[in-house]
Amino acid sequence: MGRANYDYEGETVLVTGGSSGIGREIATGFAEAGAAIVVADVREEPRDHGEATPTHEVVRERGGDAAFVGTDVSDPEQVEAAVDAAREFGGVDVMVNNAGVHVTESIRSVDPETFDRVHAVNVRGTFFGCQAAANDMIDRGAGGVVLNMASISSTGAKPRQVTYESTKGAVRMITLSATVELAEHDVRVNAIAPGRIATEFGPLNAEETERSGGEGLKPIPAGRAGRPEDVAGAALYLACEDADYVTGELLYVDGGYSAI
């Protein structure tokens, strides 16, 4: 099968949680397509096994433009600061609200502090990321694309995942509501729903999946866990001009997991 060749020359992509995992792959994928990259994360160093060079430095080493902005996405002022920093490259054209945290715990025992922390990052971070990016795009008269990181947990439940799943359900609705409001301003909003992805943050083997509350016990039709580059490919498509009429979508990247 053929491969798509994307051209993002002259565009700026801001990726929250871009230092590691899926966010790192998305950032480097857009950079390889010519985009300037702003990595907004709480830490500069990657957590990926075998990786030591920060994402923005990798982009620069490969000849691209990139910057790092220390950002706690639960703080709207820090999110706005990251969007402001993108003005150095002309302003945000694509906003990827990727930063997120996960917790596995029963509804019977999760404490308010844990619940609030997960919602602060996953929901507040996404909501105010949408807000800051949309305001920047509209104020510049540029339009643009917002991509939110949802999950198969946006629409499906598993044991001991209620805190996380409640945030991803919220991300789905933020995406839909923002779509309706922002379409007239030429701002498209979509969400990506990864399944089990092989990163430092996701359980992959049978023992770990059982401990995690059942995720992965249902077979994956594709016969493998996903890779970060699978998610990056979806992001590159959703942000491109070929997807100009695609907005308000939840795109599953799960190897068919949600189909059975």
UniProtKB/TrEMBL annotation:
GO molecular function terms attached to this record: oxidoreductase activity, acting on the CH-OH group of donors, NAD or NADP as acceptor
Coiled coil: none
Top-level taxon of origin: Archaea
A Pfam family assignment: adh_short_C2
Residue numbers spanned by region Disordered: 206-225
Oxidoreductase in keyword set: yes
UniProt protein name: SDR family oxidoreductase
Keyword annotations of the record: Oxidoreductase
Lineage: Archaea, Methanobacteriati, Methanobacteriota, Stenosarchaea group, Halobacteria
Family: Belongs to the short-chain dehydrogenases/reductases (SDR) family.
InterPro entries assigned: NAD(P)-bd_dom_sf, SDR_fam
